[in-house]
Amino acid sequence: MRSFLLASAAAAALLSGSAFAADLPVRSSAPAFAAPAPILFSWTGFYAGLNAGYGWNNSSWRNVGAPVFTNFSTNGDGFVGGGHLGFNYQINQFVFGLEGNLDWVDVRASSLCAGGPNTCTTKQNWLADISGRAGFAADRALIYATGGVAFTEYKFSSNIPSTWGAGSRTGWTLGGGIDYAITNNWIAGLSYKYYDFGSSTSTAGGIAVKFRETENVIAARLSYKFGSPAAGAVVAKY
């Protein structure tokens, strides 16, 4: 009888402990922390800046009609610098835009010409273009191609006769470059452009000459981007 009472008491204590444990609140594990997605740089917006670099051109002088002198070229190089203004629009990782450039040019070259101790000179005064842009962005880095219509002014001269002609020219340009957003607003870059201004004919001293010009320009750029740099707001989720 004594053993039966002790076993009954032990069973009752065990059942009471199990019921008490069942009544306790259940603790669930804390949800895993979800880090917010990074804010990617957006290239959409207006920008303006300065550029400076090096240009080199080829200006060929060719007889028109009877050969009066041996055909030759003046190959010049020098400083090219100015400003640019543009707008970009980004769709996913693709960036499209339009940009205008206006540069002061100190490119000139001279050559012995006209079959004697004469000096012929080609001098370029300024350079401009309006170009479209298309590129691929990897966050703050942008690689792009560019092309459009170009404008410039050349002066052709020699000591006999003194001036062959001067005037503005229209041509085309193709090139490319890379930009990198140093901060949310400041963008540094490097660009290359090839220019072709075709041919023009000028007559001086009874001698007609056809001039043809091509040019290459490589430049460093620093631009300021206006507006918000972010692609969108980020909300942390838990």
Describe the structure.
This protein is mainly beta and 238 residues long. It has a domain at 48-155 and 170-225: Porin. It is built from 1 helix and 8 strands. It has one helix at residues 2-23; strands at residues 45-63, 72-91, 94-113, 118-138, 141-158, 163-181, 186-204, 207-225. Strands 1-2-3-4-5-6-7-8 form an 8-stranded antiparallel beta barrel.
Short description:
Helices cover 9% and strands 65% of the residues.
Major sheet attributes = 8 strands, antiparallel, barrel
Structural class: mainly beta
Order of helices and strands: HEEEEEEEE
The CATH architecture assignment of the domain at 48-155 and 170-225 turns out to be Beta Barrel
Bulk shape: elongated
CATH class of the domain at 48-155 and 170-225: Mainly Beta
**Helix content percent band:** under 10%
Computed CA radius of gyration, to the nearest angstrom: 36 Å
The termini sit apart by: 61 Å
- Count of beta strands: 8
Count of discrete alpha- or pi-helical segments spanning 4 or more residues = 1
Strand content: over 45%
Side-by-side strand order of the widest sheet = 1-2-3-4-5-6-7-8
Question: Regions with pLDDT < 50 over 5+ consecutive residues?
Answer: 4-15, 19-24, 231-238
> Which fold name fills CATH's third level, the topology of the domain at 48-155 and 170-225?
Porin
Estimate the mean pLDDT confidence.
82
How would you classify the quaternary structure?
A: single chain
